[in-house]
Amino acid sequence: MPETLLYEGKAKRVFATDDEAVLLHRYKDDATAYNAQKRGSWKDKGRTNATMSAAMFTYLEANGVPSHFVEQVDETTIKTKKLTMLPVEVVVRNLAAGSLSRLLGFEEGRRLKAPIVELCYKNDALGDPLLNWHHFRELGVSDEDLEFCEELGLRVNGILAPFFDERGVTLVDFKIEVGRDADGQLMLADEISPDTCRFWDKETGERLDKDRFRRDLGGMEEAYAEMLRRVTGRPSAI
Ligand code: C5P
């Protein structure tokens, strides 16, 4: 099947095929952090992100949350529906960490009274800033779409937090994205992986996610492999 490169990002390449309704997301072993100021790469990162995303989208679908996911094509590639993306990054948090700790002066690990949803503007040049609804209206994103984003974020959290808890992992926070299909239906998109979630081992507090890279903790390959094992019970889901 002929493939046309549509987009090359930090951690993946997206291809169009002769089926106009779908895209191929090929995950790379490369990573960047702090808006591409820090770069790195580790073995099997792409495989983990593709395989874990496939497993999580399948689990969410089984729990009533439709997404762009169609199938896993090979170890590092997933096939998705082609969507028109909202310029929104939906972050959901259960414990304070990262930018929320900085925003509110909270110690990392403080449990929040209730999950907090944040809507950020997907814009690399601006560093994906946290916006309010007034800003999004100005950008042409409707209140209805923002409401969908917030509700979807909380629903996904309600399904994934217990899923990871049963596997000995605290879901500290995560980021998802939302897009609209050809029928106008909004749905979950992007990926669900240690690149886009904070995962802490419930017993030891060990970081099992991209913070190992962001914070120079080392052990990225082992942490990603451990998350894949906890989710799929084996090194690969296919
Ligand atoms: O950095 P911050 O604390 O705002 O990140 C919150 C969550 O969103 C983390 O799980 C992080 O991995 C994810 N995130 C992301 N992509 C971004 C910003 C944050 O996946 N551009």
UniProtKB/TrEMBL annotation:
Supply the Pfam families for this chain: SAICAR_synt
Q: Tell me the route in metabolism or biology where this protein functions.
A: Purine metabolism; IMP biosynthesis via de novo pathway; 5-amino-1-(5-phospho-D-ribosyl)imidazole-4-carboxamide from 5-amino-1-(5-phospho-D-ribosyl)imidazole-4-carboxylate: step 1/2
Q: What is its EC number?
A: 6.3.2.6
Q: What is the lineage of its organism?
A: Bacteria, Bacillati, Actinomycetota, Rubrobacteria, Rubrobacterales
Q: Which InterPro entries match?
A: SAICAR_synt/ADE2_N (IPR028923), SAICAR_synt_PurC (IPR033934), SAICAR_synth (IPR001636), SAICAR_synthetase (IPR050089), SAICAR_synthetase_CS (IPR018236)
Q: Does the keyword Zinc-finger apply?
A: no
Gene Ontology terms: biological process? 'de novo' IMP biosynthetic process; cobalamin biosynthetic process
Q: Which family does it belong to?
A: Belongs to the SAICAR synthetase family.
Assigned keywords, A-Z: ATP-binding, Ligase, Nucleotide-binding, Purine biosynthesis
Q: Which residue numbers delimit the SAICAR synthetase/ADE2 N-terminal domain?
A: 5-230
EC primary class:
ligase
Q: Which domain of life is it from?
A: Bacteria
Its Gene Ontology molecular function terms?
ATP binding; phosphoribosylaminoimidazolesuccinocarboxamide synthase activity
Recorded protein name is Phosphoribosylaminoimidazole-succinocarboxamide synthase
From the UniProt record, list the reaction(s) this protein catalyses: 5-amino-1-(5-phospho-D-ribosyl)imidazole-4-carboxylate + L-aspartate + ATP = (2S)-2-[5-amino-1-(5-phospho-beta-D-ribosyl)imidazole-4-carboxamido]succinate + ADP + phosphate + 2 H(+)
